[in-house]
Amino acid sequence: MKYTAEYLEAILALDKRAVGLRFLEFKKDYDALSDLTVKKGSICFLVRQGMDGNHIRANKDTVTCHYGAFALGIRKPDVSIAAGQSYYACGLYKDKSIARKIVDEISYINQEIYGIEIGPLLEVELPDLVIIACNAKQAMRIVQGYAYEMGAPKNMNFFGNQAMCGDLISKPYMNSDMNLSLFCKGARASGRFEDGEVGLSMPYHQFDIVVEGVINTVIPVSTKKEKKEIIERLEEKGLEFPYEMNYEYVYGIGLTKYDDMVEKMQTEE
After folding, report:
1. What Cα–Cα distance (Å) separates residue 11 from each residue in 151, 177, 193, 204?
2. Taking a C-beta distance cutoff of 8 angstroms, is the pair 198, 132 a contact?
3. Which of 17, 82, 229, 245 keeps 20 to 30 A from 162, CA to CA?
4. Tell me: the pLDDT tens digits for 238-260?
């Protein structure tokens, strides 16, 4: 079953839309989206536009943050920037070696990218990535959904710098895996994210897997009250919970029943 972004937004009560981002490798791909609004701003600002419901496109002429453009492959950094010298010079890192390693970890996309398409996930036909802003509890549930299907995330990497363009775009794209971000000063300012919000991003091919995992863990981790609220939110969107809801099965009860069974078996031996 293919789950829409509406399932995740309703189940987790997300305040902002899940965003789809597509890389436009060639000018013809960008020009084919001539009906979309062209927005000018940083990558943080542009992704927030998608979360607010806007469907837009941008390229090197409209992405105003050069470091964001470097991360996405829209612009190419010179040798000194790629070596981390600018980050050392501005005081973000203790020495040049650390700064160089940081730039390596940002995972600048090294292929040619002409532009990007950003919009609510439901409106982007062929997204490469799904980007989500949420609170810590909602992030917990998304990671639980990932873990249900695929085990522990293998490529979590963040350090409070180039958060939107690096943590949430270039890293998950280059690693082909989910990443978490605590955001950075620029992302919180340009993207208007609250102090308690974090970001999660994943390749689109993982999205349905993760949402299915979130759905499958609703019954074991949610309280009776939370389950009723989930059903109400789904019904408001005209969606149905795909399984019979068990309101009596609440967090921890399965472990307790298993532990009791094991204890009984051991006693009988």
Report:
1. 21, 22, 21, 19
2. no
3. 17
4. 999 999 999 988 787 777 777 77
